[in-house]
C-alpha cells in the first residue's frame, strides 16, 4: 500500500497549456490559476474556454481536496486532455502547497 504524502495547505492549482492543435482560445504557456481561499472557495485568474473548464473541474476539485491520481507520475501534477476532437489541447494541472 502506498503511503499518503503529508502536504501543507493548498495555495493554488495552476493549469498550464502544454500542446495546442488548432484551438483559437489557447496558446502553449497560457495559465489559469485557481487561488485557494479556504476549503470551499477559490479565485480564478486567466482565460479558459467553457469546454476545457468543464472537463478540468473534476481534477481541480480533487486536487483542492488533497486527492492524488494513482496513474500520475507525480502526486501534485497530472496531465489533462481537452475533450474537443476538432481542436485538441493538452493541459498540465499542478497543485502548489504552502
Sum up the structure in keywords.
98 residues, alpha+beta, five-stranded antiparallel beta sheet
List the helices and strands and how they pair.
Elements: E1 10-20, E2 31-36, E3 42-45, H1 50-64, E4 77-81, E5 89-97
Computed structural class? alpha+beta
Order of helix and strand elements from N to C terminus = EEEHEE
The number of helical segments is 1
Q: Mind summarizing the main beta sheet?
A: 5 strands, antiparallel
Q: What is the rounded distance between the termini?
A: 26 Å
The residue-averaged pLDDT reads 90
Q: Could you give the count of β-strands?
A: 5
Q: Please estimate the helix content.
A: 10-25%
Q: Name the overall outline.
A: globular
Cα-based radius of gyration, to the nearest Å: 14 Å
* Portion in beta strands: 35-45%
Summarize the structure.
The protein has 98 residues and is α+β, with helices and mostly antiparallel strands. It has one helix and five strands; from the N terminus they run E-E-E-H-E-E.
Amino acid at each position: 500500500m502506498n503511503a499518503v504524502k503529508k502536504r501543507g495547505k493548498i495555495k493554488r492549482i495552476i493549469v498550464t497549456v502544454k500542446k495546442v492543435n488548432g484551438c483559437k482560445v489557447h496558446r502553449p504557456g497560457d495559465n489559469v490559476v485557481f487561488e485557494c481561499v479556504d476549503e470551499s472557495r477559490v479565485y480564478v485568474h486567466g482565460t479558459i474556454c467553457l469546454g476545457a473548464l468543464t472537463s478540468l473541474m473534476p481534477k481541480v476539485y480533487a486536487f483542492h481536496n488533497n486527492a492524488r491520481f494513482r496513474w500520475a507520475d507525480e502526486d501534485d501534477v497530472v496531465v489533462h486532455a481537452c475533450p474537443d476532437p476538432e481542436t485538441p489541447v493538452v493541459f498540465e494541472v499542478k497543485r502548489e502547497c504552502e
